[in-house]
Amino acid sequence: MGTCHPGPSLKSLSDKAEGMLCGCGSPDKYRRLDEKLERKMIEVRKTASGRSNFKSINTIIMRFPQFKEGFTNLRGVFLQYDEDSNGSIDREELKKCLEKLQLHLSQEEVEDLFHSCDVDGSQGIQFNEFIVLLCIIYLLMEPDSSPDIASTTSKMGSPDIESTFNTIVDVFLFLDKNGDGKLNKKDMIKALNDSSPWEKSPAHVTRTRFKEMDWVKKGEVSFREFLFAFINWVGIDSDEEEITVE
To answer: Which site in 121, 143, 155, 193 is 20 to 30 Å from 206, CA atoms measured?
Structure first.
């Protein structure tokens, strides 16, 4: 994004994430979730008839205050379940949170999500990781089959949270120009330049934005990886909630 400035901790995050993802057993767990998300994004694009509501990068940047407000709403949920007030949610606290939100996941699903979103390896879900985790659950969970429940409640019990997540998905659809459910550098160049030629971004900006998402330098970016970068671009209110690596 041409005019946004992610925090200085992002490079250390990228280096740490690369080491983690290359660790024994880790790639398969990430790959399972990322492949599910890839299929989901393709499905969402078909439902949306291949169109995004965003027309240019600037129209996305102009929505950053609304995204930040949505993140602030999520902070209330996070603080409610951070029972020991240590700035992160452990496995037991996460289970209670999911139960309260009526998100029924198996133990294996909870463990996979915890592992995939705990990118700094702290064994706790920090606030930005919590946003990613809930967004992923929202995308992958099946709607309740009961017509009575479906007609009276939203998918996650909060229309505001769902609206935030839906708009983030719309940003991803805008960037995913070839519609394959993941991002590559060609997608980014096309999104940053072709959609609105009078708002072209310098080549080094495009490369930087893509590098911030492509932690493991594999040339393509999953929705999960995009989420972490996007949250850094938008920013969250408290510096202590950003991912930092010693």
So the answer is: 121
Distance CA 68, CA 74 (A): 10
Q: Write out pLDDT tens, residues 94-112.
A: 888 888 877 777 888 888 8
pLDDT classification of 115: cutoffs 50, 70, 90: confident
Find tokens 């009276």 and name the residue: 152
Cβ count near 236 (within 10 Å): 20
Question: 21-42: string of b/e by CB count within 10 Å (b at 16+)?
Answer: beeeeeeeebeebbebbbebbe
Helices 107-117 and 26-47 pack at an angle, to 10 degrees, of 100
HSE (side-chain half, CA atoms, 13 Å) at 58 = 9
Q: Which residue has the tokens 């890839």?
A: 38
- What's the pTM value of the predicted model, to 2 decimals? 0.76
Closest CA to 127 of 166, 85, 98: 85
What is the three-class DSSP state of 66? Answer: helix
Q: What is the DSSP letter of 197?
A: G
